[in-house]
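Let us work through a complete example step by step.
Step 1: write down the sequence.
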Amino acid sequence: MPATAFDDRRREVLRTLIELHIETGEPVGSESLSRAINRALSPATLRNIMADLEALGYLDHPHTSAGRVPTDEGYRFFVDSLMDRHPLAPGDAAAVASALASPDASTEQVVANASHLLSRLSRHVGFVLAPDIARTSFRHIDLVPLAGRRVLVVMVSATGLLTQKVIELEEKLSAEELQACANYLNTHFSGMALAAIRRKLLALMREEKALYDSLVKKVVSLGERAFALSDEEASVYLDGTSNILSHPDFEDLERMRALFRTFEEKSRLVQILNACIAGEGIRVLIGHENPDPDLRDLSLVTASCRVEGDAGWGLGVLGSTRMEYAHVVALVDHVARALAHTLQGLHS
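Step 2: predict the structure and record it as tokens.
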């Protein structure tokens, strides 16, 4: 695009038009734009500028209206170059602090509160993506005997995420033997990532004492199964999916069905969201920029959540491309930092 294509007048017209469309949901005509804009520009001048912006691909002209609406490219230029960025409003910041500051809450409760906050304060879908067990640091393990050679493994990550799975051993172990194994694992492996634990177990297996020490032999056999790196998917906490129904942008029944299928297919949703939270800082994906075809009519505002000991945390807001981007960006950024701080201190 030529440097002269976006002078101050075009920038102001595009910014004002997008802000009006976000507020009203209606195509914006030259008359309403003339009333809203700060400059004394006539409707005829504004129509010419709007035609130029449409030719550049930033506006579209619905057949049934004389007004214009932003395209995905228009929203992209708005977010990158025109939008005023500001901190989260004090009232919303206080709501975040209140909801996440409960000292007695479990990690799961804190995460659920965060997804609810994102939904309530954005009026769209809020989500928090918790890492899969393979990307967390181990803090504590309990081993509960079940029938036969089966054992319930209850693991707690550094940030308090609880994971349970059932394994089957080569030989039946008593409750006392399982407790001894758990004590050994908690003493020697706490604070380590699962991949590192696996390497240490393999090294331990090669040592001579594993042949002669009955406890170490049991620990190695049990630990191999308990800390196996499976294809377990991360957990996604969604809140506010019904908010989508309140937006007039989603009156098409088939689009709604496709979208709710995506919400129901958790493994697919996790894969999409994991791709979106990669990297640092806030990421905004608009319409066709989304990696999944069923999300091409939506915008995603995401942030990774840096928590020492647990990699793979992320959160964000999913909603109409006609969202209040400045507010949602400020909200996602604030909640990401608040959640990271809460998780860091929750079980330290």
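Step 3: interpret the result. The chain has a mean pLDDT of 84.
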